[in-house]
Amino acid sequence: MDLVSDKAPRPEGELTLKVLADNQSTNCTGDVFAGWVAMNVDQAGEIQAREVAKGRVVTVSIGAMSFMRPVQIGDIIGLYTRVADVGKTSIQVIVEAWIENERGEFASQTKLTETSMVFVAIDDTGRTQRISR
Q1: List of residues 6+ apart from 104 with CB closer than 8 A
Q2: How many CB atoms lie within 10 A of CB 63?
Q3: pTM as predicted
Q4: In what order do the strands lie in the sheet with 14-20?
Q5: What is the chain written as a DSSP string?
Q6: How far, in Å, CA of 111 to CA of 59, rounded?
Q7: In this structure, which topology does domain 14-121 adopt according to CATH?
Q8: Using an 8 Å Cβ cutoff, are 78 and 18 in contact?
Q9: C-alpha–C-alpha distance, residues 82 and 13, integer Å
Q10: Close Cβ partners of 44 (under 8 Å, ≥ 6 residues apart)
Q11: Per DSSP, what are the bridge partners of residue 122?
Q12: pLDDT digits (tens, 9 = 90+) for 79-125
């Protein structure tokens, strides 16, 4: 499956997080750092995984991310998540990031990136724990 495809006309999954790109997240030319986007993708994935695990989770892996367009100051990024798989201790979450442009009455969304992430449920001591279903 090609995770980074611009063929999807709208986001898949549920809106989990919205963030506003500001001037503290940019390089000297005004484009938002990819690391800032990746941090927010990780947070959205964690929110979804915590709901499934009903507790703490940690990120085990983040798939490749290709960025289809630059993010500008003032862009609103909508992060959409969906659970792809739940194992004994792990949760695979797909996260899509979309740039939401609002101009007057017209609003549009443009896909920025998409990735697959794996989280593991942990207990209060940081040890892996089973996910109760």
Answers
A1: none
A2: 14
A3: 0.89
A4: 14-20, 76-86, 90-103, 106-121, 57-62
A5: --SS-TT-SS--SEEEEEEE--GGGB-TTSBBPHHHHHHHHHHHHHHHHHHHHTS-EEEEEE-----SS--BTT-EEEEEEEEEEE-SSEEEEEEEEEEEEEETTEEEEEEEEEEEEEEEEB-TTS-B-PPP-
A6: 23
A7: Thiol Ester Dehydrase; Chain A (3.10.129)
A8: yes
A9: 5
A10: 16, 17, 79, 80, 81, 95
A11: 128
A12: 999 999 999 999 999 999 999 876 545 467 899 999 999 999 999 99
The 10s digit of each residue's pLDDT in 30-81 is 889 999 999 999 999 999 999 999 999 999 999 999 999 999 898 999 999 9
Residue written as token pair 């959409």? 80
Per the structure block, which two tokens stand in for 26?
């940019």
